[in-house]
Every structure is written in structure tokens, then in C-alpha cells.
Amino acid sequence: MLKKLLWRCFVIIILLFIGIGLNIQESTAMLRQHHDAPGVLRYHSQVSIKDKQEYSWQVLLFKKINPGAKQDLILRLVGFPGVFEFAHPHSLEIITASGKLFSADDVFADSSPAPNVGEFNLTNVLPKLTTIESLQLNLPLLGKQKKILQIPQAVVIEWQLLVTEVD
Length: 167
Known about the structure:
alpha+beta
């Protein structure tokens, strides 16, 4: 009887660890700094996030520090080539966990370097997020494709660091 109970506990613990492991997304981001040109720094947060169909998306928020120039916060989203195409010029819809709705303008309104790449200006959106919470991005894609990316709270916290601490 005790053997059966111990065995069941062992199986439950293993299943819990497997379940936790399956639910963890590769969403650990980290602020990085690059020199784009002499006197021009670029700070960015980069993470790979999977959508519900298990496609990986590169999610990159960056800010260029160029003396005398405006410092926009740009969100670059890169989907799998040949599978996803952004509809330009369409805004990115951003929904917070508490239900607030925001919109970010399409940076590639005229032309994009590749069909699977979208860039959106988050300069006016990120400071309006009064609480740090997860976000849902409704991607503007061509055709009937509807794609939603879930941005975890840990990534949003890093994005706020890019807003407040990097100047």
C-alpha cells in the first residue's frame, strides 16, 4: 500500500514538472546595446515568442540614441518567411491584460524590407501602460490570416526599462 502511494506521488511530481516545462515559452529577453554608427547607439530587447500554432516570431523593441534626433521606440516583428505577410499600411492592435486597447502606427507604410517583417512605432503607447501587465498583439496580416502574439509580463517589464532607463 505504501509502495503504491509513493509510486503515485512520484508519477504526479514527474507529470507536474513535465507540464511546467511545456508551458514555459522562450520569452526571456535582455537589453542589449549596439553602435549603429559613430555616436549612434541602439538599445534593444529581443525575444522569440511562439504563437498558438507553434510558429516562432522574433520580437524586437529598439531605441536609437542619436544626439539631437527624436528617440522613437520601434517594435519589429518577424514571422516565418513565405508563411506570413504583413498588410501595409495597417496599425498594430495592442490589448493589455486588463482590456485597454492601443494602436501603433506602421513604420513600413510605404515599403517593407521583406513581406514577413513589420515595424510599428510604440513611442506613444508604452508610456501609457500604467501597470506592467502582459499584452496581446493582433498582427495585421494579409488575407484571412489572423495571428495573435501573447507578450509575457516579463518582456513588458523589460520594455518599460527601455522606456525609462535608457536615454
